[in-house]
Every structure is written in structure tokens, then in C-alpha cells.
Amino acid sequence: METYTEVTDVGIEPKEGGLTSAKGFHAGGFHCGFKRKRPDLGWIYSDTPANTAAVYTTNQFQAAPLQVTKESIAQEKRIQGVLINSAVANACTGEQGLQNAYQMRRWFAEKLGIQPHLVAVNSTGVIGEQLPMDTLAAGIEQINLDDTDEKNFERAILTTDTFTKNVCVQVQIGEEQITIGGAAKGSGMIEPNMATMLAFLTTDAAIEQESLDAALKTAVNKTFNCITVDGDTSTNDTVLVMANGKAMNTPITSRDPNQCRVFTEALTYVCRELAKQIARDGEGATKLIEVNVTGAQLQSDARAIGKAIVGSSLVKTAIYGSDPNWGRIICAIGYSGVALDTCNLEVAIGDIKVVENGMPAAFADGVVTEYLRYNEQIVITVNLHSGTQSASAWGCDLSYDYVKINASYRT
């Protein structure tokens, strides 16, 4: 897996690790019976209640666990435990599904010996099925907080993913070093604002909840909201961050914009890494596509163009087939909704310029074909030459296997 290697001027240091790298966090997972063999129940626990922020899917059919988690966070803005099951989404399950999500929260709170509002719950999997509550109850009874293994947690939250996703960084905040770790799942039905993806972030930083919330929204807009696999926005998905203050740094507040910037940059790095791993693991994908848009008047314009390109089925299939058909890229830019000076537009595939001043550049098709065929990460660069703003977006190619996987998802 290629990782994002840019380190900003705030001194971000990528590290091996994940959710339990931050002080005071524990996580685990195991097979309890939702699936035939694979791990399917995961949990996160903080030694102390942690300031918490979250963002959720924009799909109007929000699953029952999201409603319960929103209620938990709203009560005190702090969470101490998170419980996640895979295989069953508990979405579109009516009042019974909602009561099951509340029961899921109560059972885990009792296991931890804490109040229910300090627990968040998430589910991922097939829509429209009720949770098998006997299986869930037996699984919660098996949880052992001393049996911490973040790798098992990462496996437990997967559905059609082909690999686990994690990242960890450290950064200096005042006199103290703080750690941010994360894990995610996502492979299909990916088109955030948000989509079929879950991401959990932990940090031992001391940070006020309002600043944590602002940092998460900024990070998500630049990362998770800039990926697409197939254009479908799902019912369950959540990015949740917990900050327990165990690093003992001087608390980060809005009164210190520099410390807020440092923390936000580090959190954005973590989210970007996870977002790119999700894009690379698109169902049936063989290539990660990165689109960098520069020279825009507005960052939102650059982001819209990037997402239009990575979301285009014609672009995705051309890249799968190693076809240097730059016309499909131009087409996506044109329908992005962004006003353009088409005569100044430049496009490059890799380092090969294929469009200059809105017209075909002088290049050899075979060179672009070779680049597309032999690289697992395909970079497309668009320069609008109309401003100073830029943004990136990520997606994947579209292969025959995507159809095979989704044609038999429930069978």
C-alpha cells in the first residue's frame, strides 16, 4: 500500500500503529456469529470519557445506530465506548431496529460499567435486516477489555473490503507530543457526503469539544468528502473522533489558532490516508486514481471538478483498460458545474501533458497507455489557470469484478 508522504510544516510524523497508539485507548474484535467465520464485532474503549465529535451520511434513510449515537454525543459531547457490528446494517428496520440499537447501547454500557449516553454504536452490512439480538448479547458478554488487539478491531468492521485500513501520526502540541490514530472500513457504495464507510479516530490530545468538532469538519471536507468509488451514498456511515486528553498538553482551544491549526493539519493527514486507502480498495479496483486540480478561483470549484473526474464511469473504465482517452476527462470537467475558461485549460496524465490551452497537446498515445498499464496509482492533474485555489480527489478504476461482487452481494 502506497502511503501519503507529504509532511506539512507543522511537523507531522507518521508512525506505525492505529487506534490504540494514543494513550488510554483500547480496541478489539472477534467472531460472534453475524458472519460465518470472519470477525464481526468490534469495540473501542477509553480509560476516561473523551470529548467526541462526529459527522454522518447525508442519506435521508439514516440507520438506527446513527440516531442513537447522535443522541449519545448530544447529551454530554463525550463518549467512552464504541461498539460496532458488521454484516447487518440495522437500516430501514423501523421502530424495532431503533429499539435494538438502544439495547445494543445499553448492553455495552452495562459491560463497561458506564452510563448508556457514554456509548456510541455503529453497524454496517446488509440493509433491511434486523439485528440477531441473541447473537449480539452473547457477543457482548465475550468482550474482554484486557484483550486489546487493534488489528482484530480493524478486521471486525470489514464487509467487502479486501484489506484493513489504519494510520497513526504524532505531532508536537506545546511541550507535549500528541498521537492521533485511526481505522476505517469501506470498499463499495462509496460517495461521501458520506457513504458506506466507517472511520474511527482516537487521540490523546486535550482539546475542547468545539475545536475538535471544527477540526473534524475541516478534515472530512478535504478528505473523506473527496473520494468516490461508485457514486452511491449509503445509510450508515460515520466518522467519529475521540479525544481523551491523556497526553496532558495544555488544552487546545479556539483562543490559540496556531495550536488548532497544528491539530487540524495532523487530523487531516490521518483522514486523508484513510480516505486514500478506502478509494484504493474499491470493489474490484485495480488502480487508485488521484486527481489534483489547481488554478481554481474557489477551493469548492477545484473539489467539484476533482470529484466529477474520479466519479466518471467513463474515466474509470478508460483507466481500467489503459485507454488514453483524455476526452472523457474533459467531458467530466465540463459537466462539473464549474464556470471555466476552456481556452486556458491544461490536463496531464502522470507527467504527460495531454491537453494544452483547451486543445490536444502533442503526445504519443503509447506513452500514456504504458503509464496507465504499469502504475497502480494514476495521477491526473488539471490546471484551470483562473485562480490560486486547489484541491484533490481520489477514486478507483471500474472493473468487471465490481459488477460480479455487487451482483451477488446477498447471495
TrEMBL record:
<dbReference type="GO" id="GO:0006526">
    <property type="term" value="P:L-arginine biosynthetic process"/>
</dbReference>
<feature type="site" description="Cleavage; by autolysis">
    <location>
        <begin position="195"/>
        <end position="196"/>
    </location>
</feature>
<keyword id="KW-0012">Acyltransferase</keyword>
<keyword id="KW-0511">Multifunctional enzyme</keyword>
<comment type="pathway">
    <text>Amino-acid biosynthesis; L-arginine biosynthesis; L-ornithine and N-acetyl-L-glutamate from L-glutamate and N(2)-acetyl-L-ornithine (cyclic): step 1/1.</text>
</comment>
<dbReference type="InterPro" id="IPR042195">
    <property type="entry name" value="ArgJ_beta_C"/>
</dbReference>
<dbReference type="GO" id="GO:0004358">
    <property type="term" value="F:L-glutamate N-acetyltransferase activity, acting on acetyl-L-ornithine as donor"/>
</dbReference>
<keyword id="KW-0028">Amino-acid biosynthesis</keyword>
<keyword id="KW-0068">Autocatalytic cleavage</keyword>
<comment type="function">
    <text>Catalyzes two activities which are involved in the cyclic version of arginine biosynthesis: the synthesis of N-acetylglutamate from glutamate and acetyl-CoA as the acetyl donor, and of ornithine by transacetylation between N(2)-acetylornithine and glutamate.</text>
</comment>
<dbReference type="GO" id="GO:0005737">
    <property type="term" value="C:cytoplasm"/>
</dbReference>
<feature type="binding site">
    <location>
        <position position="159"/>
    </location>
    <ligand>
        <name>substrate</name>
    </ligand>
</feature>
<dbReference type="InterPro" id="IPR016117">
    <property type="entry name" value="ArgJ-like_dom_sf"/>
</dbReference>
<dbReference type="InterPro" id="IPR002813">
    <property type="entry name" value="Arg_biosynth_ArgJ"/>
</dbReference>
<keyword id="KW-0808">Transferase</keyword>
<feature type="binding site">
    <location>
        <position position="411"/>
    </location>
    <ligand>
        <name>substrate</name>
    </ligand>
</feature>
<comment type="pathway">
    <text>Amino-acid biosynthesis; L-arginine biosynthesis; N(2)-acetyl-L-ornithine from L-glutamate: step 1/4.</text>
</comment>
<keyword id="KW-0963">Cytoplasm</keyword>
<dbReference type="GO" id="GO:0004042">
    <property type="term" value="F:L-glutamate N-acetyltransferase activity"/>
</dbReference>
<feature type="active site" description="Nucleophile">
    <location>
        <position position="196"/>
    </location>
</feature>
<feature type="site" description="Involved in the stabilization of negative charge on the oxyanion by the formation of the oxyanion hole">
    <location>
        <position position="124"/>
    </location>
</feature>
<protein>
    <recommendedName>
        <fullName>Arginine biosynthesis bifunctional protein ArgJ</fullName>
        <ecNumber>2.3.1.35</ecNumber>
        <ecNumber>2.3.1.1</ecNumber>
    </recommendedName>
</protein>
<feature type="binding site">
    <location>
        <position position="196"/>
    </location>
    <ligand>
        <name>substrate</name>
    </ligand>
</feature>
<dbReference type="GO" id="GO:0006592">
    <property type="term" value="P:ornithine biosynthetic process"/>
</dbReference>
<comment type="similarity">
    <text>Belongs to the ArgJ family.</text>
</comment>
<feature type="site" description="Involved in the stabilization of negative charge on the oxyanion by the formation of the oxyanion hole">
    <location>
        <position position="125"/>
    </location>
</feature>
<keyword id="KW-0055">Arginine biosynthesis</keyword>
<dbReference type="Pfam" id="PF01960">
    <property type="entry name" value="ArgJ"/>
</dbReference>
<feature type="binding site">
    <location>
        <position position="185"/>
    </location>
    <ligand>
        <name>substrate</name>
    </ligand>
</feature>
<feature type="binding site">
    <location>
        <position position="283"/>
    </location>
    <ligand>
        <name>substrate</name>
    </ligand>
</feature>
<feature type="binding site">
    <location>
        <position position="406"/>
    </location>
    <ligand>
        <name>substrate</name>
    </ligand>
</feature>
<comment type="subunit">
    <text>Heterotetramer of two alpha and two beta chains.</text>
</comment>
